[in-house]
Amino acid sequence: MTYRPKSEFLNVMMSRGYLADCTDYQGLDEALSAGTVTAYIGYDATAKSLHVGHLLNIMMLRWLQKTGHRPITLMGGGTTKVGDPSFRSDERPLLSPAQIDDNIAGMNRVFARYLAYGEGPQDAMMLNNAEWLDGLNYLEFLRDIGRHFSVNRMLSFESVKSRLDREQSLSFLEFNYMILQAYDFLELNRRHGCVLQMGGSDQWGNIINGIDLTRRVIDHEVFGLTSPLLTTSDGRKMGKSAGGAVWLSGDMLSPYEFWQFWRNTTDADTGRFLKLYTELPVEECDRLGALEGSDINAAKIILANAVTTLLHGPEAAAAAEATAREVFEHGGVGDDLPTVEVTADEVAEGISIVQLIVRAGLAKSGKEAKRLITENGARLDDEPLTDAGLMIDAAALTSPIKLSAGKKRHALVKLSD
User: Fold this and answer.
1) Domains held by the chain: number
2) Is residue 240 part of a domain?
3) What's a Pfam family this protein contains (predicted)?
């Protein structure tokens, strides 16, 4: 794509690698150059926290605001009751209204780290689509909105087609999701003058639906922009680690573990991730990403510090780096390592080392923990752990013990006060 944008926002999107596709580059560029543009990304409230897989799009909203425009974080209080079927093999479990509200509260705390909310023309807005979806009259909705959708066309979208090609059930409830998401764009345009929807490239079909609906119903020009679906250089889905999802909530993943996730970035991904997940100048990101050998480790520390500072603050980033240095360079335990506390009652007759490894998040199951030990991947206080039947009692916990899985994942176990 050879289009050269005039607007700062599109320049950032292109130069830093955020852009997969756009419905109308020139039209959007002109709108961005003419004044403040309001744009949104939707988030269904399926968990108590956002995770690293969401972070690329959150950074897009942050750049939108930094370049003089207004972001909307649209919480799917209504659509979560249906569930997005995109590229899933089964139906999402349905959540209660109380669970959805609780999840939204947790997600809002993450957004507040990246965006400035308020009443000003460029302040971010936090909205909930339950505001207009919960009160819909079904018959009126079918007559006024449903008539604009072609079932033939909806069946052709890859997110639906892939499910049907595998002969997996797609409920009528889920099939309605794309209509509701399209209606969100129409309502945001009506209520708040929103002219741009952004999302991952898997949302392209849903975004196109919203654009078509808005043009048909109120004849307004609106735009869509998608980001690439990221995988790491070794083919893994971005945001997954050996311990599971990399959560953006400090209550679900410690700042140290978050920092360590970025420090463990592969050499080939370092420059790309610096451009996507930090605000360092592109030229500096390219320079750091081109380093080789042991020098690239310094770039990874810069990446980990910058990303952790944005989410958890500079003190948390500095503490995480200090802990990592203590653990890796000096063989210590570090003050900021993930910690498992056990009670005196739990260890009165001893607690198995396998159970402690699982509780520390270093293995997902007892079977995996035993295999880790058998394959010489586990260590206790930096010494090889070879006995899967080892029991830990109170005497062994007069001071904290350090458990390790491989060279990069560590945790402390101590008696609770």
Assistant:
1) 3
2) no
3) tRNA-synt_1b
Same domain, 116 and 198: yes
**Angle at Cα 176 formed by Cα 171 and Cα 179, nearest 5°?**
155
Predicted TM-score of the model (pTM): 0.79
Query: Has 138 been labeled as part of a binding site?
Result: no
Residue with tokens 């999302």: 199
177 annotated to a ligand binding site: yes
Within-domain flag for 189 = yes
**3-state DSSP helix/strand/coil % of the chain, to nearest 5:** 50, 15, 35
Asked whether residue 3 is marked as a ligand-binding residue, the answer is: no
Which range marks the domain in which residue 259 is found? 254-329
Residue 234, domain member (yes or no): no
CA contacts within 13 A on the Cβ side of 280: 24
Q: Are residues 322 and 376 in the same domain?
A: no
240 among annotated binding-site residues:
yes
CA distances from 47 to 4, 139, 142, 218 (A): 39, 32, 30, 34
Question: Residue 97 falls within a domain, yes or no?
Answer: yes
> Among candidates 125, 128, 108, 129, which has minimal Cα distance to 36?
125
Same domain, 15 and 47: yes
Query: How many residues appear in the chain?
Result: 417
Over the stretch 18-75, which tens digit does the pLDDT of each residue have? Answer: 999 999 999 999 999 999 999 999 998 888 899 999 999 999 999 999 999 999 999 9
